[in-house]
Design brief:
The protein has about 150 residues and is mainly alpha-helical. Helix content is about 70%, strand content about 5%. It has a domain of about 100 residues. α3 packs across α4 and α6 packs antiparallel against α7. The termini are far apart.
Length: about 150
């Protein structure tokens, strides 16, 4: 009887301790999620000339989404502002991908919010569908906005 009681007490204590433990967090993301996102980490393309890259992005967006020419100026301002910010954290992508992603996320959220306001919901939805995938990431100028 004593053995059963001690066994149940030990098992209860073990369960209590396990319930209290939680995964440590990395940059506000649970460890499991952070490691899986790092496993899928895509190194961002070099930005190069911000004005030139921004112009190419805006040109591709206006032509593929059928946006009016009046939206090109505001789009260019938002995209070039984002690229300037992103250039400041590019060094982290090679040495500390988790830190890079944690800094990129709020910047990208702000960018996408502004783009949606300029483009409208329907065009923004199409824009999200233009996210480069696979081998197209390296050669697509829109990669600068997504990675």
């Amino acid at each position: 009887m004593k053995k059963c009681f001690l066994l149940l007490l030990g098992l209860g204590f073990y369960c209590m301790v396990q319930a209290q433990l939680s995964l440590p967090k990395v940059a506000g993301v649970p460890l499991k999620s952070a490691s899986s996102s790092l496993g899928n980490f895509i190194s961002p393309p070099a930005i190069g000339d911000i004005a030139g890259t921004s112009g190419k992005v805006v040109q591709q967006l206006t032509s593929q989404l059928g946006l009016p020419a009046a939206q090109a100026g505001p789009l260019n301002n938002v995209v070039s502002g984002f690229l300037k910010q992103k250039q400041g954290i590019m060094g982290l992508a090679g040495s500390q991908p988790a830190a890079y992603l944690s800094k990129l996320a709020p910047m990208q959220k702000g960018l996408f919010s502004q783009l949606k306001g300029i483009m409208g919901a329907a065009a923004f939805s199409k824009f999200l569908g233009m996210k480069p995938k696979g081998s197209a990431v390296a050669g697509n100028v829109l990669s600068n906005l997504f990675f």
